Amino acid sequence: MHTAWEEAGWEQLGDGVARRRMPGWDETIGVIAGTTGVMIVDTGATLRDGAELRRTIRGVLGRDVTHVALTHPHFDHVLGTAAFAGVEVFGAAGLGDLLRRGKDALRHDAVRHGVDRDAAAEAADLLVAPHHHVHGQLTVELGDRQVLLANVGPGHTAHDLAVLVPGRQGAPEIVFCGDLVEESGEPQAGPDALPQQWPGALDRLLALGGEDAVYVPGHGAVVDAAFVHAQRDALAARFGVAPAP
Questions:
Q1: Among candidates 135, 129, 6, 106, which has minimal Cα distance to 46?
Q2: Residues 107-147: tens digit of each pLDDT
Q3: Strand runs labelled E in the chain
């Protein structure tokens, strides 16, 4: 029997936790539901994406998103944020300033990757910067559950945020990794990546989740700690960084 999440096109990862791989750029969107709050992890590539995500989450839960966590500043993960009006937005320290001064670059990047020009311009013009800046770790209360936001970067970008959902009743912890981890292809190191520091970011990510956690990449299928270790070592070899001790 399918769950309500699966019937709505999402993959259920645990009690009150699900994710969706979006069409087009295959970016992962996460949702974490507590008794008094609902957090979405990333918001899609356009306002239309964000609005559709908001509708489907409301359709499953019967209530609205209250918190947004942005894992990093790439168009396919942030441009839907304005569709979540009135919601508390969280990001790694420095993300807000980057988004405010980099709207034109974000719009150009979206168009270059195939987003409709008008849709990209609208989303960039209305882009919502984080209200809450995560320097180290920050716990967010969603009623009967706590979510830990951790600034584990830099790596894929200068502003990489991971989201840890503690397990319930013996279930494993779930870590939303953003694009620090990718499964559907080789991790993408663009001009804003800090490749020398990326393996260290994965060390911090693994320390956060532990060996038994479920790791949710920014693109691709859910993986385990062994996959993250292997990707860490591959990145270290690719960028000439010393292997993990």
A1: 106
A2: 999 999 999 999 999 999 999 999 999 999 999 999 999 99
A3: 11-14, 17-21, 28-33, 38-41, 67-69, 88-92, 132-134, 137-141, 146-151, 161-165, 174-176, 214-216
Return the CATH number at 116: 3.60.15.10
Task: Identify the domain containing residue 123 by its residue range.
Answer: 4-239
User: Does 245 score more than 70 pLDDT?
Assistant: no
Answer yes or no: is 48 within a domain: yes
- Residue 242's region, left for phi above 0, alpha for psi from -120 to 50, else beta, is beta
Split into its structural domains, the chain has a count of: 1
Distance from the Cα of residue 169 to its chain's centroid: 25
Q: Could you report the per-residue pLDDT of 193-216, keeping only the tens digit for each?
A: 999 999 999 999 999 999 999 999
